[in-house]
Amino acid sequence: MRVNAWRVVGGAFTAFVVISAAMIAHTELLWSGDLDASAPTTLISAHHSETLTEVYAFDEPILIVRAGDGVRVTIVPGTDKQLTIRRELSWTGDNPPNLRQFWNGRTLRADVSCRDSCTAAYTLSVPSNVEVERPDGSPLAPGIP
Q1: Which of 83, 97, 109, 141 could form a disulfide with 118 if both were Cys (CB 3.0 to 4.6 A apart)?
Q2: CA 11/CA 9 separation, integer angstroms
Q3: How far apart are CA 98 and CA 119, in angstroms?
Q4: What is the pTM of this model?
Q5: How many degrees, rounded to 5, is the angle at CA 103 between CA 140 and CA 77?
Q6: Which helix (H) or strand (E) holds 111?
Q7: Phi-psi region of 18 (alpha: psi -120 to 50; beta: other; left: phi over 0)
Q8: How would you list the strands of the sheet with 107-113, edge to edge?
Q9: H or E stretch including 58?
């Protein structure tokens, strides 16, 4: 009885290996056909983007925003006691931009630099009872970077 069990297990394993090898060989033949041969092309441009959305519990009376030259900030009305920070980063070329962001629970600082062309756009959804201030201390009106 033990010999038959080993034969069944061995036969099943052998069948698995043979079928797997056949499937891999078939896939390799499909992917290495003439249709997949390379063609003389040159990349003209590439545009990359990434989006990050973070939601924080926020019960502070003031939000301070400090943004560098390449950073656009838009303020929109948000939910009470919640701050949503949505960052959209886009760039051209192969090298991603150097984004420096700092958030300490009351102050958001952001600056971006890059080799080619890049932008960083922040949309802050702020509770209606929160005052948003610019670096110089003047209020930041909704929609004004």
Answers
A1: 97
A2: 5
A3: 11
A4: 0.66
A5: 40
A6: strand 107-113
A7: alpha
A8: 98-103, 107-113, 62-67, 131-133
A9: none
Confidence at residue 69, expressed as pLDDT on a 0 to 100 scale: 81
- Nearest-angstrom CA–CA distance, 116 and 83: 32
Residue 120 buriedness (CB in 10 A; 0-12 / 13-18 / 19+): buried
Listed residue (85, 65, 67, 84) closest to 131, CA to CA: 65
Strand order in the sheet with 82-92: 47-57, 82-92, 118-126, 71-77
Q: What is the mean pLDDT of each run of 10 residues along the chain (145 residues)?
A: 73 83 73 65 86 95 89 92 96 88 92 87 94 66 41
State residue 144's pLDDT score: 39
In angstroms, the CA 130 to CA 84 distance is 13
Q: What is the largest CA-CA distance in the chain?
A: 88
- Structure tokens that stand for 79 in this block: 């939910």
- CA-closest candidate to residue 116, choices 90, 92, 100: 92
